[in-house]
Q: What sequence folds into this?
């Protein structure tokens, strides 16, 4: 497989002219995902920012076939599109479902599980910005501990969200999926290669990409990529793959950058006390201890 | 053109009709009393008598969502459901109709919880009258089979391009057996050509965005166009039925059938299987010299105002049998019929007979009593406008 990077990636665009906020990490992920998948892509997007900013009649942001689906239905609609294309004998296409963290880990979870269970030939791209951004920054099942959202306020009694992120990557892998990976818009080449791998897979594949949101997280728009990198470098996000029944850590830092540097750069974490941050680091270390023990041959 | 005859149940007949219609993909989730339909279809796929993909989805919400995906790329989709399943997929139905996707769905009419009940009434489909789907109600297994084929022809008509729901009364029809003529495949293929939806499906040649968003500057127009096309679909319902009659020898009189209404003083309106009982009652009462008539309402959306008011002309009293209650008001068909009468400045006495809820029997005696009450209303007797058939509590 040709190594995909700024030099080798073509200049065609299949997703542009949308109304996303400046610095939107999610639209950055979509743009690059579509560049890998190409013009013969059929995309299904449920309610969420990307649907809201891309299908505003009469201005359509996808140059390929694309549609808005019922919120809970990304996996099912994408499955149906792939099945319809196959039944009609239309070859050489790629079907993709693209949903946010809420659309994936909460309301769309069941339909995603059904699609993986059938091993339908689709890619499911989960774009994780850790809250319901389109509706105004409410807590989702992928909002991490200590996050201030509009439904998990931080105050005297609570530090914001009190639960850790659902472990979607491993939940998906537990289905015995053909291919699954985590990624970040901070490490675009890694993300591009994983998209290319998913495209080559016959059967269901799942990419969970971490996408900072300046509007929802409270940071200057130009820091999206550096924050996405910082999340990985501080160990609060990780780059991994699940393939042929095996987990693989793509990046195993010898040491982590301080979690506080990443967290306190965002207004959603500004309220965290040193104790809260220590707790987050302890959760991180426990997670990495398990990943390293189990996933590093 | 005639085919073979089989002694089968209503669900079997639906499955036969679907097989003849050659859907590309079936996505379905089991629910009583629809289950036999999806069991048969999966058997057809397994044995190869139906070349389709059978998708095992994890819910009704995904069943319809899959069908939306299938239809959006221009392939023929089928699903079937009932009751809570229909309500569970409810939010997806306007996605299908708004995107003008010609999906056909069989709904086995069943009671709505709670109290939990698996037997037939028509509460489920009434919830979805406003979903933008064409709604048929059938009387027997033969009509169920025939309407699957007609349903696709109508849904896929370029002037219609609207999904169709075929309602089949739970148990009373889904699980009862009758002799059904199965049309031959060549005849069906001639009647129902391969699906073409050049304007509203995705394609590699002309990529499209579907199910788009439209703000307050354009949204009303999208809804209006959908509404106007749905109204206009009324004429296509008649045309498709006539064409079917010419091809297969069975014609169902379009959106409604008039049974001995010409000189009728009182007319009862029914939808679904209870029509069969009412036919017997009408013949019996006519034998006694009573001028009674019956209207079998086959289509509730688009609502056949013209045909209905024409059929009711001259009647002194009109009764509407509703196997549903719109809680806090009356039977839903009754409301619609009264509105149609008002639109034509017609003023017969009208009465609502609510019955069959949760599978409660509606007997010939119940219908005779209904006709008696209609004669009473016509004669000026002060009767409650909404009557409840065969009910064991006071009201």
A:
């Amino acid at each position: 497989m040709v190594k995909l990077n700024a030099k080798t990636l073509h200049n065609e665009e299949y997703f542009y002219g949308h109304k996303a906020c400046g610095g939107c990490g999610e639209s950055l992920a979509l743009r690059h995902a579509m560049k890998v998948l190409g013009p013969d892509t059929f995309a299904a997007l449920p309610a969420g920012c990307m649907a809201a900013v891309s299908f505003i009649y009469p201005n359509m942001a996808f140059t390929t076939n694309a549609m808005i689906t019922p919120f809970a239905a990304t996996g099912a609609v994408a499955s149906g599109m792939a099945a319809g294309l196959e039944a009609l004998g239309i070859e050489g296409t790629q079907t993709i479902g693209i949903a946010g963290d809420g659309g994936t880990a909460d309301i769309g979870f069941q339909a995603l599980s059904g699609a993986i269970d059938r091993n339908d030939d689709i890619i499911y791209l989960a774009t994780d910005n850790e809250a319901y951004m389109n509706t105004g920054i409410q807590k989702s099942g992928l909002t991490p501990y200590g996050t201030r959202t509009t439904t998990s306020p931080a105050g005297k009694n609570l530090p914001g969200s009190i639960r850790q992120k659902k472990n979607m990557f491993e939940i998906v892998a537990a289905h015995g999926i053909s291919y699954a990976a985590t990624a970040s818009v901070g490490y675009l080449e890694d993300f591009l290669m994983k998209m290319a791998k998913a495209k080559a897979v016959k059967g269901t594949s799942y990419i969970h990409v971490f996408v900072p949101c300046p509007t929802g997280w409270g940071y200057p728009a130009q820091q999206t990529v550096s924050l996405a990198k910082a999340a990985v470098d501080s160990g609060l996000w990780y780059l991994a793959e699940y393939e042929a029944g095996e987990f693989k850590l793509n990046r195993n830092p010898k040491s982590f950058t301080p979690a506080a540097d990443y967290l306190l750069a965002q207004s959603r974490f500004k309220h965290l006390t040193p104790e809260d941050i220590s707790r987050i680091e302890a959760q991180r270390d426990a997670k990495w201890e398990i990943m390293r023990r189990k996933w590093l041959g | 053109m005639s085919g073979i005859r089989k002694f089968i149940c209503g669900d079997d007949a639906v499955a036969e009709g679907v097989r003849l219609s050659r859907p590309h993909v079936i996505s379905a989730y089991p629910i009583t009393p629809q289950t036999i339909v999806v069991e048969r279809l999966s058997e057809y796929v397994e044995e190869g008598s139906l070349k389709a993909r059978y998708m095992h989805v994890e819910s009704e919400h995904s069943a319809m969502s899959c069908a939306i995906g299938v239809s959006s790329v221009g392939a023929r989709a089928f699903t079937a459901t009932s009751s809570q399943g229909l309500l569970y997929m409810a939010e997806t139905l306007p996605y299908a109709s708004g995107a003008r996707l010609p999906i056909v769905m069989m709904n086995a009419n069943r009671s709505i919880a709670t109290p939990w009940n698996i037997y037939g009434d028509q509460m489920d489909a009434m919830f979805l009258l406003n979903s933008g789907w064409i709604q048929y109600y059938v009387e027997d297994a033969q009509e169920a089979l025939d309407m699957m084929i007609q349903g696709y022809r109508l849904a896929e008509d370029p002037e219609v391009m609207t999904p169709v729901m075929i309602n089949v009364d739970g148990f009373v029809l889904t699980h009862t057996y009758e002799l059904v003529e199965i049309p031959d495949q060549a005849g069906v293929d001639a009647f129902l050509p391969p699906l073409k939806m050049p304007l509203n499906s995705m394609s590699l040649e002309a990529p499209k965005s579907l199910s788009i968003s439209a703000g307050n500057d354009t949204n009303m127009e999208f809804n209006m166009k959908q509404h106007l096309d749905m109204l206009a679909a009324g004429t296509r319902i008649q045309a498709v039925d006539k064409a079917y009659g010419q091809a297969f020898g069975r014609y169902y009189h379009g959106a409604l059938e008039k049974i001995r209404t010409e000189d009728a003083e009182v007319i009862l309106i029914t939808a679904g299987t209870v029509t069969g009982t009412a036919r017997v009652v009408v013949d019996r009462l006519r034998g006694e010299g009573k001028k009674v008539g019956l209207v079998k309402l086959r289509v509730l959306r688009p609502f056949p105002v013209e045909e209905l008011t024409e059929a009711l002309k001259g009647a002194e009293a009109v009764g509407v049998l509703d196997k549903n209650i719109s809680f806090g008001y009356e039977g839903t068909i009754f409301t619609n019929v009264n509105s149609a009468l008002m639109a034509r400045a017609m003023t017969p006495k009208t009465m609502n007979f609510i019955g069959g809820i949760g599978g409660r029997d509606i007997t010939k005696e119940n219908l005779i009593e209904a006709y008696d009450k209609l004669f009473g209303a016509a004669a000026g007797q002060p009767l409650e406008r909404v009557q409840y058939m065969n009910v064991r509590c006071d009201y």
User: Anything to note?
Assistant: The mean pLDDT of chain B is 97. The radius of gyration of chain B is 21 Å. Chain B is about 40% helix and 20% strand.
